[in-house]
Structures are given as structure tokens and as C-alpha cells.
Amino acid sequence: MGLAKLVVRVLAVVGKEIVEVFRRPGAVLSLILGPFLILAAFGFGYQGIKKDLATIVVIQPSSELPQEAQTYRDMAVRGLQIIDVVPDRAQAEARLRAGEADIVIVAPVDPLASIEVGEQAEVTVITNVTDPVEANYAGFLAETLASVVNREIYRAGAEEGQAYAITIGGRDLSDVPPDVIASPTKPVLLNLAPVQPTIVGFYGPAALALVLQHMAVTLIALSIVRERSSGALDRFRSSPMRATEVVMGKVIAFGLLGGAIAAISLWLLVALLGVPMLGAVALIALVVGLLLVASLGLGLLISVVSDSERQAVQLSLLTLLASMFFSGFVLRISEFQPAVQVAAYALPVTHGISLLQDLMLGGSLTQTWQLLALAGIAGFLLLVSWFLLRRELRPE
Amino acid sequence: MAGVTRRFNGNVAVKDMDLEIPTGSVVGVIGPSGSGKTTTIRMITGSLAPTEGQVEVLGEKPSAFHRRTRERIGYMPQLFSLYPDLTVGENVDFAASLFGLILFRRWRRKRAVLELVDLWSVRKRRAGQLSGGMKRRLELAATLVHQPDLLILDEPTAGIDPLLRRTVWDEIHRLRESGVTSIVTTQYVTEAEECNLVALISGGRLIAWGTPDEVRRSAVGGEVVEVTMENMFDAAVLTDSAGVLGVRQTGPRAFHLVVDNAGTATPDAIAAIEAAGGKVASAREIRPTFEEVFTALVERDRTQPEAAQAAQAEAGGEKTEAA
Asked: In this structure, are A233 and A349 located in the same domain?
């Protein structure tokens, strides 16, 4: 009889939560379509390549380097679009500040003279950006540019028949084309990944994991906070309802909802956006299930420590923000300090992203420990929140 | 409740409360807003633990209620605590499920309580679309659905029209006949008349406790006889008459006598008046309204706390004997 009543109570909570969510059709629609539309807009809107930077080259009048812009355009440095060659650095910097150019390259006055005395000639790259990613990109372009210039110097030297005694295995290479002497090696990139997804394909599983965590956290946190503010928890407190039944009912209800939304979103991602799904459906379902339960545990924890709906919303958004930065969604986790990495791995979504990308894009699990970690996080969060809720449902 | 005090951050919400509620009675916990009624109720339901003193309900401490004991209690909170996105029927169904009612019984009880509070016809309407009065009725239905032995209603008649208020009280009386004990808080002091026992609370203190008549008597010091005269008469001459506890002149030809027993004291008083030269036009026992009673008790508690405590102790002693 006791078990039957427990089932009745748990099912009551399950039914109540599901009906409440479906009574807000707008919310349901946004839950399902929202993530898909965002990904679709991202996929169609993001070009995946950076536009070439408008570049002004400064060649001082005393330099022996060519003064024509076309000469530098012909060098075809990746990422740079030469718009002008000017003799005055100050003028070029003024145009950079005015936004006419993205980058200014100041060529050395006499690079060969520097080389002859055993010094490297400096190619100065000037930018005007505050974005650290853009600044890093400019640095990368400066390195690329230096390589191109170096190669050009080799090539020119070889072409003029200067005495480069290059012999390999005693064989004379004087008839080797200057381009090959200047660039004896060229990169050939091979990718062993089973698929080379598009940007949407790559971010699809990660976005799904992020959306599922945020949805689960928000739904369950707001559900409990609202019940506290409306007095429903007071009603529970004076009824035979126990914290275990509340937690079970809510986790089942929002788990089912989240599972349905995940299934529909996955179908939309695969069928309409072409996101690969190489892994076994059962394993993907397991990862989604664990991610949802762990996220619901996190939401429960937020709900029991929040004293108002406003605070619960704030904490949910902070969790989302932390997930964006630390989960590996945008930046690689290995790029963080070890202490921050620990915090990153405490987030359910970190494992969710890694596991879903592994399964969907790679076809199998390479980090099985993350499956166990996700289960551990789920168990720990549910236990702590159940304990706190149980304490809350006791007399004040 | 024995010697119960509850403090919130050092502020006393309920102070030194003693109450013993007999089974099958309707107890009105009456007092102005902020007087400590809801705190008292929440200590009875087990939502709040007393800072000092002992509370025992249905033979158990509320903080350690067994599930079976909780299933015997129906609690209706002061504010609407049901779910606005669920329909009337779904809300009652959910409330029934909290108490473990299995499907068929749940459906039967749902219909019974919704018909009782006249909401069966709107059972498919969402609770958020109901008027304030309908919401109180829905709360009442959700509280009654599992047929509790002890009903704790926090202001069930607040914000509903007089006709419905009558219905609510009729239902409470009907439940009493089937053995249900009801503890009802209200701001409407006139509703004290509906109760078997009344606890008047002011400033967190119990200022009167007993049957409505006992509380009334405690407030005015006895029974009141209103006397009107054909001629002008100074009632002060009756002060020392046998059976007369007090005199209050209300006009040149009218006065109130406070007597121990109106039935026996009135003929003696009339004889004394006529002996003093007065001609009585009429003499009848009057019952002061509970608003007057409450005002008098609060006033006395404020100005003469020792007298109030003595009167309360006397009334409490009578009640305990009755219980």
C-alpha cells in the first residue's frame, strides 16, 4: 500500500509538471525550435573564413624594395589584401586609426644589408584592435608574412644565380627551380577523423548539449522556486509528500520532456542541417539521459539555494555563461589553468559536449571515463539537492 | 499546545500559548491581521517548530508526524497555493494524489468536493482564470478531498461573498457532525459565533479562550441586562444590590446591568429598582456583539494585563473541565 501511494504521489508530480509545461505552448515551441533555429541561423550566417585584412605596406623612399602595390599583391600572402603602398609610416598609421585599413606592414629599409651583417631584418606589423582573438590573428599573419618574405628572398637569390652551394648526397642541385630552393618543403595536411564536418556539423552536438543543460536547469529550478513562493511547498510540508517523491517526480517529468526535446532536436540537426550522427543511437541516448539527469540535479541545487525566482534566473544564466566559457564549447579546456579545468569538468555540459561530439562526429567513445564522470556528477548533485530539499520540507 | 512561544529573529510572533482542543469541535482562532494566527496554525501543521513549549496534534509532535497522521490532516493555506496553469479538476486531482488516493476513489472524491463547493461545472477551467472567491473554494475542495479527521483552515472565508461564507461554515458544521475537528482562523470576529470554542489572539498572545458565551462573559464580566425606564433613574443605587456585578448608565432612562445570571438576577433587580422609586418599562438580556467583545478584551488586555490573564485563566479552567 505504501509503495502504491508512493507511485501515486510521484506520478502526480510527473503529470502536473508535464501538463504545466504543455499549457504554455509558446514555451514548448521555443524549447524545441529555439535551439534548432539558432543553429540554423549560425550555420547559414557564418562563413567560416575570416575576411582578408585591408593592408597598407610602408616602403621607405630610401629602400630598394619595389614601390608598386601589385608586386606585393602578387606575393599572395594568405589573409592580407594589399590596398596601398606608401612611403610614410605616420601617414599609414593615421589611415589605420581612421579605419581605412586593418593592418600596416612596415618593410625594412635594406633587408639584405641586415642579413649580410648577420642580423634579422624586421618586418613590423601594426594593428589597432582590442579583441585579443583578433590580436592573436594579426600575430599569426605577421609570422606568415615573415615566412613569405624569407622565401621571397631565397627565391630571388636563387633566381639571380648567386652562389648557393646546395648539395645533397653529392648531387649538384644548380638546375633545381628557385621556388623549390626557396621552399624545399610544402605541407600536406591529412585528417584521420571519419568526417570533416562543417561549422554547423561541428558545433551542432555541442550546442545541443548546452541547450539541454540550460533547459533542464531552468525548468526545474523555476518549478521549485515558484512552488516555494506560492506556498505549495508549505502544502507539501503538511502532507505525506516527501522530498524523495518531489525529486523523483520532477526529475522524471523534466527528464521525459528533455528527452523528447533532445530527440526532436537531434532529428532536426541531422535531417535538416546535415549534422553527422555516426555513433550508436543507444549510446547517444545514454549520454543525453545522463546529461539531463545531471543538469536537473544542478537545477535542483540552484532552486534550493535560491530565495527568489529572480535569483534562480540569475544563477541559471551564470551557469550558462560559465558553460559557454569553460565547457569546451568555444575554447579548449586544455588551454585553461589546471584549477579552472577542474571547475570545467564539474559542469555536466563539459562531458556532454565531449561525449556527444565523440559519438556523433567520431562514431565511438574515446573518453569513456567522461560517461562515468557524468553519472557521478548526476548522483552527487541529486543527493545534495535531495538532502537540502528534505531539510527545507522539515519544520522551520 | 502548552507554553508555546515562537520567535522570528528575536521578534516574538506567538507568546506563551496554551490551547487544548477537544476532538470533534470547531475552534475559531480569531484576531486581527498580524496577531499570530497563521504562526499558531503553522505550528499545528508542523510547518513551524515552536521556539519554546510543546505542541501535540493527534497524539504526535507535528515535527515528527508519521505519514498516516499527515494523511488525517487537511491544511488550507491563507494564500492560493495551487497551480494556475492546471484546471480546477486537475488541481483537486493533484491534491488528492498527494495523500495517495488511488484512481477511482480520487475521481469519486474529486466530484464530491467540487460539487460541494459548487465548482463541478467549471472543473475544466484553469485555476488562474477563477475569481478570488472561486479560488478559495477550490482551495477548500483540495483540502477536503482526502477526507481528513483534522481540518486546519487559514482564513477560509477571506475575500468571499457572504452567501459563500455561509456555505463554507455550513460545510464545517456538517463535517463536525461526522466527527471532524476543525481549526479555523478568521479576521471576521463575528464568525466566532460559528465556533464551539474561540481563541482570541492579539499581539501574539491568547487573550481569551472558551465557548463564545464564555468569552463574551469574560469580556463584560457576566451577563448583560438592558433596562429602560418610564421615569428618569440613577442606576448607581443598584450597585450594591444582590446579584448585580456592575452598572453602566447609557441614558437618563436606560442603563445596563451586568449580572451573574440574567434569569435569576433580573426579577431581583426589577424589585430593587421599584423599591428605589423607579418604573421599569422593559428589561431584557442582551448579547454584546463579538466586535464589542473583541474590542473590550483587547482594550482590557492593553490597560489591565493582569486582570485579562486572570479572566483568561478562569475561562481556560472552565474549558478544560468541559473538555
From this structure: yes
Structural domain containing residue B239? 218-286
List all residues of chain B from 144 to 203 with a beta carbon under 8 Å from chain A.
Answer: 152
Output b/e per residue, A235-255; b: 16+ Cβ within 10 A: bbbbbbbbbebbbbbbbbbbb
Residues A266 and A152 in one domain: no
**Looking at the complex, does the CB of residue B62 fall below 8 Å from at least one CB of chain A?**
yes
How far is it, in rounded angstroms, from Cα B41 to Cα B62?
Answer: 11
The three cell numbers locating residue A395: 519544520
Q: How many domains does chain A have?
A: 2
Find the CB nearest B86 among A2, A19, A236.
Answer: A19
* Domain annotation covers residue B106: no
Say whether A20 and B86 touch across the interface (CB within 8 A).
yes
Question: Contact A358/A202 with Cβ under 8 angstroms?
Answer: no
End of a domain among A182, A209, A225?
A: A182
Contact assignment for A234 to B99 by CB distance below 8 Å: no
Q: How does pLDDT run across B173-225, given as a tens digit for each residue?
A: 988 998 899 999 988 888 888 999 999 888 888 888 899 888 888 888 888 88
Full-prediction pTM beyond 0.80? no
Give tens-digit pLDDT for A1-26.
Answer: 678 888 999 999 999 999 988 888 78
Average pLDDT over residues B55-76: 90
ipTM of the complex: 0.74
Are A230 and B48 inside 8 Å of each other by CB? no
Residue B268 CB contacts under 8 Å (≥ 6 apart), including other chains: B241, B242, B243
Q: What is the CATH number of the domain that holds B275?
A: 3.30.70.1560
Contact check, Cβ <8 Å, B100/A8: yes
Number of structural domains (chain B) is 1
Residue of B nearest to A396 (CA): B48
Domain extent, residue A293, equals: 22-45+201-392
How far the first Cα of chain B sits from its last, in Å, is: 14
Q: Is residue B46 less than 8 Å (CB to CB) from chain A? A: yes
Contact A395 B46 (CB under 8 A): yes
Read off the CATH number of the domain in which A115 is found: 3.40.190
